[in-house]
Write a structure and sequence with these properties.
The strands form two sheets. Strands 7-9-6-10-8-11 form a six-stranded mixed sheet, sandwiched between helices. The protein has two domains: 148 residues, PurM-like, N-terminal domain (60s Ribosomal Protein L30, Chain: A, 2-Layer Sandwich); 136 residues, Alpha-Beta Complex (Phosphoribosyl-aminoimidazole Synthetase, Chain A, domain 2), CATH 3.90.650. A hairpin with a 4-residue loop joins strand 1 and strand 2. Helix content is 30%, strand content 26%. It starts with 16 loop residues before the first helix and ends in a 16-residue tail after the last strand. With 320 residues, it is of the alpha+beta class.
């Protein structure tokens, strides 16, 4: 059994991203703890009995020609790596503490660009008190560059997926869609907002939007609930409207499927939802907040409120 598949049916191209993850997790067997200490959320969550807090861990990467292209400055690529990881911590409501940075670079990568990358990552980390305490470097094939950040944080309470209940109200921060027009490089993780949400007992679950609302929402509710979205109030970005004019795809589809929004998608108990919304808007007047739907009993599906039609779970995937 070699590293290259001898048959197309056995190659990674024949599997979805979810199927690949499921296979790897199953093969890791006893070495892989169940959710939430193991895979299944934005972060792995562990009890820290000594301080009566939780320790959270996450890891994410940026890859040349996948998350940025040759026109991207080193500083923007480095900043994106840190902010992508901070967005996962924001979804848990955690405060960042330390991280390990590793990268694989071809020998033809510009050394000044790499130094600029480190400057961008360092400034983004320092702005939130994150310490990069070590890492690794390896040589890759010419023309390749990827960087990975393994990040740690802590919190006295954590938000996660799969913990909402029937009747909960669905909210999202910011505006959605069209990230390819610049937002995918220039966003700031909603760290403060996530920490605030974590402090509200009425907030029942949370995730960040990295792959697109239509894909990330089913991941939030799990397979025992449904979600019903009011597409008429979906916060569609100006860039999504501009992209719709350019490619003919409806702006609402861009808002649902484009990905790389890095906003927070969360649920709140119906009795406290209005208070949560009002207090959030007062605490974060520069951060848009929209009430977009409701949680119902079901089996992990999303429906449109207006016509009761299912919304396909489309969005970004590294594989099929």
């Amino acid at each position: 059994m070699g590293v290259i598949a001898s048959q197309n049916s056995r190659s990674l191209a024949a599997l979805s991203e979810t199927e690949i993850i499921q296979r790897v997790v199953a093969a890791l067997a006893d070495a892989c703890p169940p959710f939430p200490a193991g895979p299944g959320g934005d972060c792995a969550i562990f009890e820290n009995h000594a301080e009566q807090k939780y320790r959270v861990s996450s890891i994410d990467s940026v890859i040349l020609a996948r998350h940025f292209d040759l026109t991207c400055s080193g500083a923007n690529a480095g900043r994106k790596l840190v902010q992508r990881n901070l967005s996962d911590l924001a979804a848990a409501g955690a405060t960042p503490s330390d991280a390990l940075l590793s990268f694989i670079a071809g020998s033809d990568i510009d050394s000044d660009w790499l130094e600029d990358f480190a400057h961008g990552a360092g400034r983004a980390a320092a702005s939130v008190g994150l310490k990069i305490v070590g890492g690794d470097i390896a040589r890759g094939t010419p023309g390749t560059f990827s960087a990975t950040l393994a990040i740690q944080g802590h919190s006295s309470r954590v938000l996660t997926r799969h913990t909402c209940q029937v009747g909960d109200i669905i909210f999202v921060t910011g505006k959605l869609g069209g990230a390819i027009y610049g937002h995918h490089l220039n966003f700031i993780a909603r760290l403060k907002e996530g920490q605030w949400l974590c402090g509200q007992n009425a907030v029942t679950s949370c995730t960040d939007l990295s792959d697109g609302l239509a894909k990330d929402l089913p991941g939030l509710i799990g397979n025992r609930l449904n979600a019903r979205l009011d597409l008429s109030v979906l916060p569609i970005s100006e860039d999504a409207h501009a992209l719709a004019k350019a490619d003919g795809k409806p702006a609402v589809d861009h808002a649902l499927q484009d990905g790389e929004d890095y906003e927070l998608l969360f649920t709140a108990s119906p009795a406290q939802a209005d208070l949560i919304a009002a207090t959030f808007k007062k605490s974060f007047p520069q951060t848009p907040l929209s009430q977009i739907g409701k949680v119902e009993a079901g089996k992990g599906e999303v429906f449109s409120l207006s016509d009761n039609q299912p919304i396909a779970p489309g969005g970004f995937s590294h594989f099929g």
